[in-house]
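Action item from last meeting closed. Structure (595 res):
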């Protein structure tokens, strides 16, 4: 209004450019008899790129008379053939298309003042007059000054705009980040704060994909649609971010869920894990008022070039914009990025804690091994002394002692032997944890044959049968340790057996997934016997170190470390061991190995 009063133009408009180059009249002061242009949109092609560029160079552009006759400038023969650069000339002609455009609009004279925001063309103050009109140098200076002041004001005005939104968003973000940073489980924490998860960017739906698990919150596409979208997104993240307010323009399948997901803001948390957070916004039908049909005034030529025609009709042309959501504001996208740093920070912190814990565990394991080694080494020496001295006593003084004294000495010798066995088992067990596995394919048939050979040598008189009902597979493992497993299980089956015809059967089941939490296919082997069986209440106990169910002399048992060692070996191979038994009838030990 002020400018119109100063300059006396029929119409003064403020015209703002959108990121796609189209423009909208956002303010207008005009003579009462003119039809209003306020709110009308003008397509990108109405002001070509070169013209927009000139607007950033020159603060003012004046056309005092649209019916001017242009005069060409000719170079002298001697000068270069390059046309003279007239970018900064006030008297420079404008494009004839623009002149025709103005004439079609019924404009006789025009002036525009550029509005720049940080050097980028933000908009124009466009002045139109029906008849020819010049503007004095003084007034032009005033206009230039006003344009500059307004340009400066734009920065702070636009920053202040949405300040309330921004403050509110900040509060949500801060609460949210605090809540998730103190949590143990990231997904639980994100879900415990559902409202904030959506509020943090102003979305109506969200999808969390963490460690391969998908969780949907609010209004979202279906699980399968989100999985498909996630796949598509993988190589489209830029700086871990993907933002669009019209997903279908890049992802046509998105049409199926446009009602909930026309707008997408996606954050990649980890590329390797494919962890991501997706936010959705619904389709919002928008009415756009164009000044005439925006598609008319250009034509693509056969050679691909574009010919533009000035529009003849500027009458209101309405378009309903579909498949678009409300745009994601810069501060909302910024909020999402900050959330990402928080999440990544938490994930990294957890990884650090885990690494520290592992290091600590490793250290204590090494200490324990060292302790077991030193203890057994240091214990062995006095033990040997006791053993030797009691043996000497037996040899040299047996005649002096009475029978009771001799018996006691013999018990002493036996006890020292037993203690040595226990110490040796402990030493063996403590080493297993650190021992490196040498993994190779092992033919289990050969393994069973080896064990059979050893047992026949050590127990030549035992009436026993080792059955293998069908050919065993070849499975990856440490051969020496696996032989120890089989030797232990098979010999136990024969030892803890008072059947006159003792047998042990070794078999297997094909790879399958046995454990829901650990979905890796495994081979399941079994060692079955017709022995004494184990009472239900002892089924777990027998795997504890030094746990024996019988007196040392009975069934020729060992130290009670055998099954503990077997369990450790299986677990080091990534498998599991358990036992089923019918007391008095026999037992079956099962163990798994990753296929
Ligand atoms: P040991 O080395 O003394 O044999 P293990 O750790 O191998 O000790 O076994 C622990 C206990 O589990 C044994 O004392 C025995 O009572 C019981 N046990 C192990 N295998 C069997 C089996 N096949 N049948 C019945 N009892 C068994």
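Sequence:
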């Amino acid at each position: 209004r002020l400018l119109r009063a100063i300059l006396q133009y029929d119409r003064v408009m403020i015209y703002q450019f959108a990121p796609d180059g189209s423009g909208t009249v956002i303010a207008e002061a005009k003579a009462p008899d003119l039809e209003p242009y306020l709110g009308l949109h003008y397509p990108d092609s109405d002001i070509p790129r070169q013209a927009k560029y000139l607007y950033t160079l020159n603060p003012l552009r004046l056309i005092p008379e649209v019916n001017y006759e242009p005069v060409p400038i000719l170079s002298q023969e001697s000068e270069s053939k390059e046309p003279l650069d007239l970018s900064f000339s006030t008297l420079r002609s404008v494009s004839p298309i623009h002149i025709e455009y103005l004439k079609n609009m019924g404009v006789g004279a025009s002036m525009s003042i550029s509005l720049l925001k940080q050097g980028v063309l933000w908009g124009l103050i466009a002045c139109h007059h029906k008849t020819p009109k010049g503007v004095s140098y003084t007034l032009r200076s005033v206009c230039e000054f006003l344009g500059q002041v307004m340009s400066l004001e734009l920065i702070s005005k636009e920053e202040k705009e949405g300040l309330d939104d921004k403050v509110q968003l900040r509060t949500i973000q801060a609460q949210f980040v605090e809540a998730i940073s103190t949590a143990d489980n990231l997904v639980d924490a994100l879900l415990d704060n559902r409202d904030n998860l959506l509020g943090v960017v102003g979305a109506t739906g969200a999808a969390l994909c963490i460690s391969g698990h998908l969780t949907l919150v609010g209004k979202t596409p279906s699980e399968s649609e989100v999985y498909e979208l996630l796949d598509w997104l993988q190589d489209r993240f830029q700086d871990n971010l993907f933002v669009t307010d019209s997903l279908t323009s890049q992802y046509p399948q998105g049409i199926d869920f446009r009602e909930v997901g026309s707008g997408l803001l996606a954050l990649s948390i980890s590329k390797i894990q494919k962890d991501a957070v997706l936010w959705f916004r619904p389709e919002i039908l928008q009415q756009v008022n164009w000044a005439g049909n925006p598609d008319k005034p250009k034509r693509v030529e056969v050679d691909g070039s574009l010919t533009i025609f000035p529009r003849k009709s500027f009458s209101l042309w309405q378009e309903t914009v579909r498949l678009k959501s409300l745009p994601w504001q810069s501060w909302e996208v910024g909020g999402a990025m900050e959330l990402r740093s928080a999440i990544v920070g938490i994930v990294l912190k957890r990884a650090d804690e885990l690494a520290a814990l592992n290091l600590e565990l490793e250290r204590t394991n090494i200490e324990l091994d060292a302790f077991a080694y030193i203890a057994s080494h240091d214990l062995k020496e006095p033990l040997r002394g006791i053993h030797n001295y009691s043996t000497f006593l037996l040899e040299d003084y047996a005649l002096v002692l009475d029978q009771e004294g001799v018996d006691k000495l013999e018990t002493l010798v036996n006890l020292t032997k037993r203690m040595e066995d226990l110490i040796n088992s402990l030493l063996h067990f403590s080493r297993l944890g650190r021992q490196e596995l040498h993994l190779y394919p092992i033919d289990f048939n050969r393994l069973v044959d080896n064990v059979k050979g050893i047992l026949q040598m050590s127990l030549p008189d035992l009436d026993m049968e080792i059955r293998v009902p069908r050919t065993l597979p070849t499975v990856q493992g440490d051969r020496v340790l696996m032989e120890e497993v089989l030797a232990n299980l098979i010999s136990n089956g024969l030892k803890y057996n008072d059947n006159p015809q003792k047998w042990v059967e070794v078999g297997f089941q094909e790879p399958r997934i046995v454990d829901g939490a650990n979905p890796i296919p495994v081979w399941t082997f079994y060692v079955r016997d017709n022995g004494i069986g184990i009472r239900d209440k002892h089924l777990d106990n027998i795997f504890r170190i030094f746990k024996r169910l019988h007196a040392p002399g009975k069934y020729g048992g060992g130290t009670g470390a055998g099954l503990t060692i077997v369990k450790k070996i299986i677990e080091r191979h990534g498998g599991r061991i358990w036992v089923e038994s019918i007391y008095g009838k026999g037992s079956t030990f099962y163990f798994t190995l990753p296929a």
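Note appended to the action item: The mean pLDDT is 87.
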